[in-house]
Q: What sequence folds into this?
């Protein structure tokens, strides 16, 4: 019946939501006095109409006269009806429950053993996971229970807790809260099917258990995005009260925003108040497992032949204090090259190896520590890392105006890197100086037509593999010198890195040939014609690495592109950037920053091939800020890798065929960049709509299409490996096949630090006013939450008079009236 | 290779714990910077107790504290504070190139001159004008000319006798000058090594002047001098650092406690991870716990340099903590 009424209500034009609750609708009049007065007046007027028709139309049959009278009275009635403004109203009382988000960690670290739990709480924990509680005076039973729980994985412990306590706890939560469930691995996923609007959540709805398929988090389990999961739960509950976020996790967050930053950001957005208390349930023992792990290796990705370089490895151990182990450096054939004996102590230690680069080409080295029998985790005992050995040192010329801070740090770092042979020229000061090996020599004075140390012709420029041009006056680089540099880049393959400043470069070169070498378009009018843009004092620029930039060698940190992107995008902010408003058509944007005025982002870093060389743009002179709290590692990692990627390379000359994969080591799911340089037998660039490479791993072969790049004969493409293992990338041309190796290895981040990060969980709880709750107290969570439902009222109204039936009646009566008159010969 | 700078043997270090402490260090330095900004005179100087008139030495220390936190001239929220401070020092230049104010000196203007030279050289990286480079080179030339025949420096800008306390400030300034590609004769540096070595004590540590007893502040200064002069492996460096590490760390250990902290943090940092790990936690913990609510630090034995405001002690303590931040080029290892 209700369905029919609802259909009828909808049919006459009442809103859909009101029509669906037609049995609860109430009828109202907007102007009841008009209705009353109209009906009262309608009686005498109706009588008067009837009388008038009787007198004036006596010749008309009584039936037609009555019909005419009825029509006219009906029209008047409808007018009274319309003027009275009838409408229907639905008054609803809404009980809006606060949201509770439950986040369950499903990353691979949850497959680690729970570890030894305290004997004092073992009885409660046993009960919590559905095991028989051992008698307090039975040490054998207690020991057996401890051992049994210790052998469970963290994920099994979570499952048992949810099986044992979940139904009751969830029912209690669902009575008072809108319970939403999430799982987190590399991504956070909401798994409850009831993704419904608040008003549609009836209080008596049973808790819906997710299906087994829905529970599984199919995102890569080699990482935990705990901070992102917290952000997702908070975003999902936007506009609602969020009573709590319950975390069932070991606390390790290996990707995305840091969990503490996530709650702080949310608090800032809420005027300083925490968005929701976090109830953290640590999964795993307080005690660290017996373990030694290689957690980090710092090594230069490229070195020169015959260099002896240091490789720094960080070793972390727990519960193995005093144990003597051998940390080994192995080559690609797993031969031991060097060994550092270490007596382990709790925490992290470093071992430094010396490695002599004896052969040109790419190789893979391994730092490992032999697994001990008592260790619980063996996957974290080694790390592979690629090293490329070039045939000679790159010759670098740095020309800058003044010794900016970036230059002072770059100067030290580049001279310490034995892969480079650097010459520095300061060209804007009161005297021009050339510095070789750190000893400045006065060589001329400003205003001279040529500055010693600055190349004057193509051959002099081409003597260098790379030129770094800083904030240099145009008077130092005359048009002839600029043209010579351009020719050296286009025809001799010299690389150029521009690092503009606020005074001369790029401003002085707006109409000079050097402008065509910039990989970006400059807004020379920006910043009062300084061609630089200042950030507001309290809203500095933040670098944002692009998807392509995350694959670029300059930004390579780990084998995971998105992780690289996040790491670099979290670098300290800075205050000035060159006004590079667009990339040149041939350029690839590697990083950008938002403009203060909200216009399109500025190009902060870009790279482009120019003829046989490459040019790069680094649009800030504040990269020294990347030294914050760590010094050189990230600063020189970026600069060293960026310079090497732009410099002319003997192993990749323009006039030979080559195939390069970058990075050459990555994790599954992380894209890599493929670059192919292809010439025919006559050394002419091969021009085609596309080229292909075959990528083989474990017996299967996949074909990837490469598209033409900006330089004839060069082709680019990307490939995202899904499985780990050594991939062979091959281009089968008519000439000699080109091959390159890609090592795809699972991340060990999740298992590198196997302990439960209780400190982070405690901080999360403290910051948000929540609590750390042990697994045996999981069922107490509903009693800890005090937030109440918010009662609100909602009224919906819809007019009834402006519906099509009313119009139909009016038209109908009018037509009958006119019809009778016409048929009767009346005017 | 860059990584050659890392220790060549194994050592233990609580890297995670350090990361958490760095957040506290940054917050403490930010409070100190706010305190200093609030105390700056509109003319660009900071109050002190050394003299009745503005003193370029204390000014330089306060300016270095800002730059050590990344507040460079012309950039960021303190650009005007920093700009005024630079202008004040540059305008203080005397005809002979000495960066001091008349009547604004302590008993030894070479203290002020060396600190002012260091600060202006660091600031010059953000001020691309020939004029400031001329000021820097002239200031360096003053230091070079004031070196005595033993290789040390004393209070006045002319060769006479020498002491390690004045000498260390000149050496740091010369090192910054080298970083900034200013002209520094190698002979000056070689002679400085000789003087510093003459202050070393056989039992470990350095004396204020040759033949005198060990002073902790001078041990830090002497070790830093030798490191900045390239003598990282000199046995006197390790002996001096060990002599410091073996003492109970407290404000009473030296009458110039802030001075000692400033140089000892840099000396240990320059010595590599092993020495650094053995020293910095105690300084960090002490400074974090002793900071006043307003962001300043007590003057302890150097309160007379402070005067009513605590700008000297606050700048020194902030700079000791800023070694963690790696921003100032003069601090780079």
A:
């Amino acid at each position: 019946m209700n369905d029919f009424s609802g259909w009828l209500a909808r049919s006459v034009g009442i809103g859909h939501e009101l029509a669906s609750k037609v049995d609860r609708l109430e009828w109202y009049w907007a102007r009841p006095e008009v209705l009353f007065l109209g009906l009262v007046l309608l009686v005498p007027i109706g009588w008067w109409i009837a009388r008038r028709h009787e007198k004036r139309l006596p010749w008309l049959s009584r039936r037609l006269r009555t019909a005419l009278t009825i029509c006219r009275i009906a029209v008047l009635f409808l007018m009274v009806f319309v003027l009275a403004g009838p409408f229907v109203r639905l008054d609803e009382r809404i009980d809006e429950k606060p949201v509770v988000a439950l986040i369950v960690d499903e990353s691979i670290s949850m497959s680690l053993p729970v570890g030894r739990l305290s004997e004092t709480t073992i009885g409660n924990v046993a009960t919590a996971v559905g095991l028989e509680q051992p008698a307090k005076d039975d040490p054998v039973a207690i020991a057996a229970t401890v051992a049994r729980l210790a052998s469970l994985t963290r994920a099994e412990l979570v499952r048992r807790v949810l099986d044992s306590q979940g139904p009751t706890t969830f029912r209690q939560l669902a009575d008072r809260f809108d319970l939403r469930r999430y799982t987190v691995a590399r991504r956070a996923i909401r798994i409850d099917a009831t993704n419904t609007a608040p008003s549609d959540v009836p209080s008596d709805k049973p808790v819906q258990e997710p299906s087994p398929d829905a529970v599984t988090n199919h995102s890569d389990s080699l990482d935990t995005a705990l901070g992102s999961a917290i952000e997702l739960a908070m975003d999902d509950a936007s506009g609602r009260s969020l009573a709590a976020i319950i975390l069932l996790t070991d606390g390790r967050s290996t990707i995305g925003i840091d969990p503490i930053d996530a709650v702080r950001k949310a608090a800032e957005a809420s005027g300083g108040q925490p968005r929701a208390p976090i109830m953290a349930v640590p999964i795993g023992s307080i005690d660290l497992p017996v373990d030694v792990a290689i957690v980090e290796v710092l090594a230069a990705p490229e070195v020169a032949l015959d260099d002896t370089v240091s490789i720094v490895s960080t070793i972390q151990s727990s519960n193995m204090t005093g144990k003597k182990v051998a940390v080994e450096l192995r080559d690609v054939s797993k031969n031991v090259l060097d060994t550092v004996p270490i007596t382990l102590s709790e925490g992290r230690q470093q071992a430094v190896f010396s490695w002599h680069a004896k052969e040109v080409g790419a190789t893979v080295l391994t730092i490992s520590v032999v697994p001990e029998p008592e260790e619980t985790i063996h996957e974290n005992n080694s790390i592979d890392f690629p090293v490329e050995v070039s045939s000679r040192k790159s010759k670098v010329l740095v020309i800058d105006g003044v010794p900016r801070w970036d230059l002072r740090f770059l100067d030290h770092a580049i001279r310490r890197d034995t892969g480079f042979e650097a010459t520095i020229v300061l060209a804007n000061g009161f005297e021009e100086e050339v510095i070789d090996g750190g000893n400045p020599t006065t060589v001329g004075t400003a205003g001279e037509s040529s500055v010693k140390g600055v190349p004057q012709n193509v051959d002099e420029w081409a003597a260098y593999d790379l030129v770094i041009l800083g904030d240099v006056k145009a008077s130092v680089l005359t048009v002839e010198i600029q043209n010579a540099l351009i020719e050296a880049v286009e025809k001799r393959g010299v690389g150029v890195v521009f690092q503009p400043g606020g005074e001369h470069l790029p401003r002085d070169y707006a109409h000079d040939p050097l402008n065509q070498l910039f990989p970006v378009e400059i807004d020379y009018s920006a910043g009062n014609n300084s061609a630089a843009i200042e950030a507001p004092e309290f809203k500095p620029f933040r670098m944002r690495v692009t998807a392509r930039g995350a694959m670029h060698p300059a930004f390579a940190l780990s084998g995971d592109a998105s992780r690289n992107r996040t790491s670099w995008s979290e670098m300290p902010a800075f205050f000035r950037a060159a006004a590079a408003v667009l990339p040149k058509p041939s350029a690839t944007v590697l990083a950008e920053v938002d403009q203060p005025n909200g216009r399109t982002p500025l190009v902060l870093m870009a790279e482009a091939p120019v003829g046989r060389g490459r040019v790069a743009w680094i649009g800030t002179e504040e990269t020294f800020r990347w030294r914050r709290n760590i010094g050189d590692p990230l600063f020189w990692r970026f600069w060293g890798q960026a310079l090497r990627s732009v410099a002319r390379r003997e192993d990749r000359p323009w006039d030979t065929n080559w195939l390069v994969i970058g990075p050459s080591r990555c994790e599954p799911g992380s894209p890599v960049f493929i670059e192919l340089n292809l010439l025919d037998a006559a050394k002419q660039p091969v021009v085609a709509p596309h080229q292909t490479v075959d990528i083989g791993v474990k017996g299967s072969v996949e074909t990837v299409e490469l598209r033409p790049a900006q330089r004839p004969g060069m082709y680019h493409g990307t490939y995202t490996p899904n499985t780990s293992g050594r991939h062979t990338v091959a281009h089968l041309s008519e000439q000699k096949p080109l091959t390159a190796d890609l090592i795809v290895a699972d991340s060990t981040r999740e298992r590198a630090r196997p302990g439960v990060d209780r400190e982070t969980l405690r901080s999360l709880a403290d910051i948000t006013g929540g609590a750390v709750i042990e697994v045996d107290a999981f069922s107490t969570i509903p009693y800890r939450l005090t937030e109440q439902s918010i009662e609100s009222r909602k009224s919906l109204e819809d007019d009834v008079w402006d519906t099509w039936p009313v119009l139909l009646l009016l038209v109908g009566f009018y037509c009958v009236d006119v019809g009778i008159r016409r048929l009767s010969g009346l005017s | 290779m860059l990584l050659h700078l890392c220790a060549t043997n194994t050592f233990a270090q609580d890297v995670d714990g350090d990361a958490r402490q760095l957040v506290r260090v940054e917050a403490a330095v930010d409070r100190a910077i706010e305190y200093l900004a609030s105390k700056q005179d509109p003319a660009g100087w900071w109050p002190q107790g050394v003299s009745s008139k503005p003193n370029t030495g204390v000014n330089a220390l306060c300016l270095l504290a800002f730059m050590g936190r990344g507040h460079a001239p012309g950039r960021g929220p303190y650009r005007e504070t920093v700009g005024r401070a630079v202008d004040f020092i540059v305008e203080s230049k005397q005809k002979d190139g000495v960066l001091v104010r008349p009547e604004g000196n302590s008993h030894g203007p070479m203290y002020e001159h060396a600190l002012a030279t260091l600060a202006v050289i660091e600031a010059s990286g953000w001020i691309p004008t020939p004029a400031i480079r001329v000021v820097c080179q002239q200031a360096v030339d003053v230091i070079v000319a004031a070196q005595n025949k033993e290789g040390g420096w004393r209070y006045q800008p002319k060769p006479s006798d020498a002491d390690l306390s004045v000498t260390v400030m000149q050496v740091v300034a010369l090192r910054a000058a080298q970083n900034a590609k200013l002209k520094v004769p190698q002979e000056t540096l070689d002679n400085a090594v000789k003087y510093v070595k003459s202050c070393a004590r056989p039992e470990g540590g350095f004396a204020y002047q040759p033949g005198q007893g060990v002073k902790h502040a001078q041990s830090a200064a002497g070790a830093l001098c030798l490191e900045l002069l390239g003598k990282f492996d000199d046995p006197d460096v390790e002996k001096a650092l060990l002599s410091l590490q073996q003492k109970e760390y407290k404000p009473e250990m030296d009458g110039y406690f802030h001075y000692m902290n400033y140089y000892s943090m840099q000396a240990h940092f320059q010595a590599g991870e092993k020495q650094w790990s053995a020293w910095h936690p105690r300084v960090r913990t002490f400074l974090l716990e002793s900071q006043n609510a307003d962001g300043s630090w007590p003057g302890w034995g150097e309160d007379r340099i402070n005067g009513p405001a605590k700008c000297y002690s606050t700048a020194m303590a902030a700079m000791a903590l800023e070694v963690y931040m790696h921003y100032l080029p003069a601090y780079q290892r």
Summary: The first helix of chain A runs from residue 2 to 11. The mean pLDDT of chain A is 85.
